[in-house]
Amino acid sequence: MPAGRVSKGIGRGDLRAPFPPRYVRRMNLRLIGIGAGVLIILSLPLAGAIAGPDFAGQDDGKGGGVFSALGLSDSSRTSPAAPARSAPTADPQQPGPAEQPRTDSSCGPELSSPHGVEAQTCVLVGEGRTWGRSYYRNTSGRTLDAVLTMMGPAGRTVQIRCAVGAGDEPGLCETPKEASAGGPESYSAVAEFAVPDDEGELLLRSGSNSPAPGDR
To answer: Going by CATH, does the domain composed of 104-210 fall within 3.30.430.20?
Structure first.
């Protein structure tokens, strides 16, 4: 090379020389990647501060989360409903007393004797049957015999004997019930109270059709 002639080539230490295009592209990509990474790192604390612990997936067990952070209720978390009150059951209806069958009666007056015997005799009809009954009270102080006779249509007769105690408590004597052949007016009943000895002194006769004491 002739002396005094300076070369115009590019030296390695000359920073003013332009880079080849492929190097420029690589450097740009690296700068873009580094800048994006820096932005992501810087944005993480800010996002955590804005979102709070709920957005970080933490749950304090007190109903927190996305819905609570936004001031909304989480429909999937419901408080246990109060048990529904059952309607009071009506008490079963208690059966009432059975209706007593109707009984018709035809009675004579209440009679008494000076010997301490009181009685009233009746004819009763009910449920297609007829029978005689005598209500009495013995205040004589001794045991008596009572014979009750019921007479019906066509000469039909039923008779029964009853022992009357010496006490003064009320009692009754009645005949067996027979199939009715008519109404109470078709029957009559008579009760006779006597001393149970050989003489058989009659103390009182009471009938269903006896006249009242004032009518005699």
So the answer is: no
